[in-house]
Amino acid sequence: MDGAAPKVVIYMSCYNHEKYVGEAMDSIIGQTYGNWELYVVNDGSTDKTGDILASYQDERIHFYNFKENTKFIGAIKFLIEICREVDADYIASMASDDIWDKERLEKQINFMQKCPEYQSCFTWDKVIFSDNAQGIYQYDTTYSHKKNRNRYEWLNFFLINGNCLNECSMLMRKETFYEFGGKNQNYYQISDYRLWYSLCTKYPFYLLEEELVCYRRHGANLSERTVEVIARNINELYQMEREIIIQMDKRTFRRAFYAELPYVLCDTEEELLAEKFILLLGKVPNARSVKEQIAMDIYFANCRNEKFITVLKENYYYNAQDFLELTGKGGILGTALQESREQWYTPAFVMINAIDSRKINESSLNKFRYSTLFDLWELTEKLEEERKYFEQIRTFIFEKQNERIDLQVRKRILFLIAETSQYDLSSKIKEAQENGSECFVAFVPTTDKLMNGNYDDCVKSKQIEGAEVFSLCNRQEHCLYFLFELNRETDCIYYIDCIDKKYDCNHMTAGYPLSVEYHCILKNEDYRNIAQDDSRIFSMMKSIEVYE
Q: What confidence score (pLDDT) does residue 475 get?
């Protein structure tokens, strides 16, 4: 590569990896992208690791030999500080027992140069086993093989599922890396996870869906599930998630977790605190005890705030007796005592109580999210009697929608249409205008195109007679705007050929109020595929039109 190519600074700390470190070094040197510098520390190894590292003679490699082991804490701190002073564009990390594909850096650099709004790029990994480790670990070898997401979806994924990204696949803009404090060595187990969790509270990152690193499992991994590792992991996760969730701003929080929130409106600080509290008590499988402990912190810190207590009681049917049960059975210690609580504070729970309390009517539908119906669908899908209960509630909601719409003089209709759709909108728009409705149209690309920024601005190139055409595409964050983010209101949305999983708007229904009507128009083939794959979306529609 020529001197104008972006430079990558790489850091690696090693301890007693004489079996593997040579492969790790060779995979860096063998990269098809050559403009890099490696800073590597032998962290007081007692085997031949230091000799192997010292044998590499390359002007791009900077080797430091520590006589005493720092348990990586001192070594990582040293590397992070020294890399800060290197004149480089990107920073990457390598583990001394892992391996890079030879095109790893080249493919990531090419992508990052093409899409400068992304602050980091990761890849899938391939798990390899050494020293008969496959019998030691019950390990999902495709844990990193997740689909790409926008930053809000990543925040949601991390909270509900945990980490799935391999640190050795990270390529991050160096300035951004240090903006978030780099790799904090005091988070011994989850320092990498903490970095990208924090990153996506502000910036988007990209996941290349290719196996470009090999993650080695063996008998001496730092993540081996000993009692000490489990305890440290819980303590670090508690501190990290507490800091991030409590400090997260309202827009980011609500956009990331809308599907777990029953209400559309959140006007006050007390309402936001209540939302965070209830989210943490929801049905979150990953580190549930940690979430409950953070929820306790929020409650204790605000228990003298009468507005906060009132919001919990009136909106979420949560009172002091419920909190008493939480402090007695929940949290980290409650889990250690093997206690359990059966109460989940989910959108379905809130909806059922709101209907029973007669708090849902034609005028209050705009307060509740469609997420509540999605949540109720999942809750009742397996039991026939409960499915009937879902149908009753859905019918109730649709009746209230009709009562609300009948009170209006003019209806606002939004047509969301796939940019490649051949459907002729003219008759629908003409019919809507004859009924006194106002029409809006937004063309949407597939999620893959949206994430790659590889699509035309069809708003400028397409005009629809009788309708205002506008864009829902957030080019900076590679996702679709929600209407509330654009200060737009609508009474009715038609999804036209864009309701399946290929499109970012396939889940937008859940993010909007119960007051909005939803309809879809689909090709017959697409209708059959969606019905077979995931039919619940059709349960939310007031009408479904199929065409050939």
A: 86
CB atoms near residue 129 (< 10 Å)? 15
CB count, 10 Å around CB of 521? 22
Distances from the Cα of 479 to the Cα of 171, 241, 370, angstroms: 22, 24, 20
Which 3 state secondary structure label does DSSP give 512? coil
Q: How many helices (H) and strands (E) does the chain have?
A: 21, 16
User: Model pTM?
Assistant: 0.92
Spatial distance between the Cα atoms of 275 and 146, rounded to a whole number of angstroms = 28
- Per-residue buried b or exposed e for 26-51, using 16+ beta carbons within 10 Å of the residue's own CB: ebbeebebebbbbbbbbbbbeeebbe
Tell me which residue has tokens 């008969």.
132
48-107 pLDDT, tens per residue?
999 999 999 999 999 999 999 999 899 999 999 999 999 999 999 999 999 999 999 999
pLDDT at 536: 80
Beta strands in 369-483 (DSSP E): 412-418, 438-444, 468-469, 473-474, 479-480
Collapsing DSSP to helix, strand or coil, 229 comes out as helix
Q: What is the 3-state secondary structure (H, E, C) of 288-330?
A: HHHHHHHHHHHHHHHCCCHHHHHHHHHHHCCCHHHHHHHHHHC
CB neighbours (10 Å) of residue 355? 17
202: Cα within 13 Å, side-chain hemisphere: 12
- Report residues of the chain scoring pLDDT below 70: 1-3, 131-140, 219-225, 335-343, 405-409, 456-462
Q: Is 346 exposed, middle or buried (0-12, 13-18, 19+ CB in 10 A)?
A: buried
Amino acid at 177: F
| 8 A C-beta contact, residue 262 and residue 369 | yes
Model pLDDT for residues 311-368, shown as the tens digit of each residue: 999 999 999 999 998 998 888 887 666 555 556 788 989 988 998 899 988 888 889 9
What's the distance, Cα to Cα, between the start and end of the chain in Å? 52
